Amino acid sequence: MKEPRQGFTTKAKITRVIDGDTVDVLIERRMRIRLEDCWAPETRTRDKEEKARGLKAKNFAEDKLMNQEVIVHIPADPEGEIKDVFTFGRAVGRVFLDGEDFSAIMVKEGLATETKNG
C-alpha cells in the first residue's frame, strides 16, 4: 500500500454503501466518509441515465466493500492538522481495501472520475 499522507488513519469496517463515492464505516461509532478524488454518478436524481450509472457504481461498491475490514485515512494539512474535511455530515477521506485505494478502483472500473466534472 502506498503510504497515505499525514492525517488520521485507522482500521474500520464498512457498514453501509450510500452510493458509489460515499460509505459508512464503523470505527468505535459510525462515521460517513466521502471518498476523496472519487466522483460517482448520483443515485438520488431525476436524471434516469445518471441514476442508472449511479446505481451501477453503488452496487459495485456494495459488492466489494460490505462487511470488509478496511483502512480509513482522513488527510491532514502540512502542519499535521486535520483539514476542514467535513461536508454534509461526512468526512472526506480515503478507504483502502486490501492495500488498494478504493477511489482509484472506482475510477479504474469506469464507475467514477477523479474530478467532479471529469
Question: What this model shows, in words?
Answer:
With 118 residues, this protein is α+β, with helices and mostly antiparallel strands. It has one domain: OB fold (Dihydrolipoamide Acetyltransferase, E2P) (Beta Barrel), CATH 2.40.50. Helix content is 21%, strand content 36%. It has 2 helices and 7 strands. A 5-stranded mixed barrel has the order 1-2-3-6-4. A hairpin with a 2-residue loop joins strand 6 and strand 7. It is globular. The chain starts with 6 loop residues before the first strand and ends in a 10-residue tail after the last helix. The mean pLDDT is 86.
What does the secondary structure layout of this molecule look like, with pairings?
Elements lengths: L6 E13 L2 E5 L3 E6 L12 H18 L3 E7 L10 E2 L2 E8 L2 E2 H7 L10
Brief description of this entry?
The chain is an alpha+beta fold and 118 residues long.
Q: Order of strands side by side in the largest beta sheet? A: 1-2-3-6-4
Give the overall shape.
Answer: globular
CATH topology: OB fold (Dihydrolipoamide Acetyltransferase, E2P)
Strand segment tally: 7
Structural class: alpha+beta
Radius of gyration: 14 Å
Give the N-terminus to C-terminus distance in angstroms. Answer: 25 Å
The CATH architecture term is: Beta Barrel
- What is the CATH first-level class name? Mainly Beta
Helix coverage percent: 10-25%
What's the average pLDDT? 86
Summarize the helix and strand pattern as letters: EEEHEEEEH
Q: What's the story with the biggest beta sheet?
A: 5 strands, mixed, barrel
Count up the domains.
Answer: 1
Low-confidence stretches: none
Tell me the β content. Answer: 35-45%
Annotation field: number of helices? 2
